[in-house]
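Task 17 of the worksheet. Students: predict the tertiary structure of the chain below and write it out as structure tokens. Keep your answer in the requested format; marks are given for formatting as well as content.
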Amino acid sequence: MSDLYMPMELLPPKENWEANSTHRLSRIEMQKAMTKVKRFIERRLETDLNLFEHTAPTAFATGTGVNDELDGSESKSPVKFVVPNQYIPRGIEAKPASDLSPEERQQANRYKMECEVVQSLAKWKRIMLDRLGVGIGEGIYCSSTSIRKGYKGDVTHSVIADQWDYEIRIRQEDRNVNTLKDYVRTIWKIITDTEDYILNEYPQILLPGHSSSNFRLPKEITFITAEELYDKFPTLDVHGREDAAVREYGAIFIIGMGWPMKDGSAAEEVRSPAYDDWNLNGDIIVMHPLTRYRHELSSQGIRVDAKSIVAQLEHRGMEHQIGLQFNQAVINEDLPYCYGGGIGISRILMLLLRTSHIGEVQCGLWHDDHYKQVSRAGVDLIPDRIVDSSKPHKGRGLGP
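Model answer:
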């Protein structure tokens, strides 16, 4: 068994360690650059996609079907908690449930709420479009933060997931691949324009003379279906073929995430059956210039209609969820047709600011062994507690 928290190959190659921008930007400069990127993108979401910002929830009541179940596995289930909704005098402990009489127990549980932390706002935003009565081609975006306890933190994964969650109302006749591609191209232009903007604002992000300094995102994104990708790299696993594709094209959008391949092989990715239509969705994936492997930025797509939600629930063996409140609203066509998705905030920042680790642009939750391993590669994690690696950071060079 390895003593390392994670395989070393998840870190950038050693020759790229010095290219990490945290060795040229001070910690204060990094925070200011992060703010500029976020403000630039939010302005463009508003103008290019006709969105306005909406407040976002942190938790949902359990059992409504509104939360994102991710891949549906127990490990990816949401963090759950109970809101007792009781008046408890300040500083006085409530009596243990075992000491309560049946009458007291009934009264204590009268307003109790079973709740769960948000995993994404995919379904909730669709409810909001209906509530707000937005017009065709209009929509909302939220800056959301969720906890995904089933993920092991590494260079690009954190249990803290932050993203721009957006949703746009469309017509039934807009539920097609052309609509999907149009929205992807618009979002891709926002991302590439942001790269140009932030490199002009902070040219020291790049390490002069280093091979990564010549890297730029392609101005056009390549569309490829999950089936085409599978056929193109038949001997590689999912991440292997995505790595190969981004090395060839620079940036790809994989269309059709959720259904198995025609030969019965596993899907490109297991997806929740109740928000995206698996024939009309996909991911934006690029190559990160420092890690040199796949870097997912966004999942998005046209949302399920009455037919596709039932087919997808049945495929996953989740017919028991057809009766959930949200799913019934889709089946009964009580909710608007829409297009939506999430753009990873920290993933975007890690890419455009050229950092070696997602924890350099967000405050995540990292194991002590993770701090020790990545600090040897010159990674400057933003800590949630006092750690040795929080000593003053000069923002110049790797040091001793």
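Marker's comment: The CA atoms of residues 100 and 156 lie 48 Å apart. Residues 177-201 form the longest helix (25 residues).
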